[in-house]
């Protein structure tokens, strides 16, 4: 598998140090296999919770501005496909061979992703039927991307 370009667009920054540190560790590991670019998108801040549609709209606009042209896009969504690590690895390989050779993963914020982002994505993925904090979803995705590369190359998983 050639070195591909991966972009991880995510809303907000985790306040939890362990999440930031875990993401940093896996991002470094992923870079052995791919040109990997984490792209934070500012979380929309409103004083009232009654404006969720506005929050999603603003975050969706920011996400669209940062999507790489021609990339195969994968939205993380609780209603997306649930797959094994092996199936995810095969999908990552397939996605990387389509179009521009770039794959962009999109992780929403506390309220998820705007509907147009989900519908416009080339594929969707669910990490779990459970609800995950968006920082944890990002960390789990990074771990699974790293795992996918080790599986595709037949390498032992670094513990």
What can be said about this structure in brief?
The chain has helices at residues 17-30, 52-66, 85-96, 115-120, 134-152; strands at residues 4-11, 34-41, 72-81, 102-107, 123-125. By secondary structure, the chain is of the alpha/beta class.
Structure overview:
This protein has helices at 17-30, 52-66, 85-96, 115-120, 134-152; strands at residues 4-11, 34-41, 72-81, 102-107, 123-125. The chain is α/β, with parallel strands linked by helices. It has one domain: 3-Layer(aba) Sandwich (Alpha/beta knot), CATH 3.40.1280. It has a five-stranded parallel beta sheet with strand order 2-1-4-3-5. The longest helix has 19 residues, at 134-152. The mean pLDDT is 91.
Estimate what percentage of residues fall within beta strands. 15-25%
Annotated CATH topology: Alpha/beta knot
The structural class is: alpha/beta
- Counting copies of identical and different chains, the oligomeric state is single chain
Round the mean pLDDT to the nearest integer and report it.
Answer: 91
The domain tally reads 1
CATH-assigned homologous superfamily: SPOUT methyltransferase, trefoil knot domain
Q: How is the largest sheet built, in terms of strand order? A: 2-1-4-3-5
Find the count of extended strands (DSSP E, 2+ residues).
5
């Amino acid at each position: 598998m050639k070195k591909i370009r991966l972009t991880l667009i995510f809303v907000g920054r985790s306040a939890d140090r362990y999440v930031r540190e875990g993401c940093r560790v896996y991002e470094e590991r992923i870079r052995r296999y791919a040109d990997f670019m984490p792209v934070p998108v500012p979380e929309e801040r409103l004083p009232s919770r009654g404006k969720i549609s506005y929050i999603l709209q603003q975050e969706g606009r920011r996400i669209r501005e940062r999507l790489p042209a021609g990339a195969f896009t994968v939205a993380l969504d609780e209603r997306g496909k649930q797959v094994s690590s092996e199936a995810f690895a095969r999908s990552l390989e397939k996605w990387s061979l389509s179009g521009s050779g770039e794959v962009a993963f999109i992780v929403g914020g506390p309220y998820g992703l705007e509907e147009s982002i989900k519908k416009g994505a080339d594929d969707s993925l669910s990490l779990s039927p459970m609800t995950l904090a968006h920082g944890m979803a990002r960390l789990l995705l990074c771990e699974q991307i790293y795992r996918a590369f080790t599986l595709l190359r037949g390498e032992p998983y670094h513990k």
